[in-house]
Amino acid sequence: MPRRSWPHGAAASRTRGRPPAVWPVSDQRGRPLVAALGFAGLPRPSSDRALWALRTWLDSWAGIGDVERSMARQGYDLQLTRYNERGWRTTYYTTGMEHSITSATASAWERTPWHATQRAAWEALRQAEGTR
Questions:
Q1: Is 97 part of a structural domain of the chain?
Q2: 3 occurs within a structural domain
Q3: Could you give the CA distance from residue 12 to residue 75 in angstroms, rounded to a whole number?
Q4: What's the pLDDT at 16?
Q5: Which domain holds residue 86?
Q6: Strand order from edge to edge, sheet including 104-110
Q7: How far is it, in rounded angstroms, from Cα 14 to Cα 27?
Q8: CATH number at residue 38
Q9: Reported pTM
Q10: Are the C-beta atoms of 129 and 38 separated by less than 8 Å?
């Protein structure tokens, strides 16, 4: 299954495919997260070794852990759920809020846990950008 690139849909039309000038991250350590998620969303294949290394790292359990810790520093909790062979759903919630479907900040459903985690993180940061 080909990997979809982000951003897409209404968010992409609002910015005409350009990233915002200032991302809504709470500290300087959040900027590498935004860059990594942006590059990970580029369409495949790429012969660039740096992008290949980035994708290899992000498309792993270690990458999920690093994205989770970075999002936690930005004020988000992560819920990752596997649904048999059908796929994975990642949901981010605002830290300190009761975790219910109505309090979800962003959610993504993908065939792999790393793609679900990356896409949901991207969407959570995009939504935060829209509220500032």
A1: yes
A2: no
A3: 24
A4: 40
A5: 27-131
A6: 76-83, 87-94, 104-110
A7: 25
A8: 3.30.160
A9: 0.69
A10: no
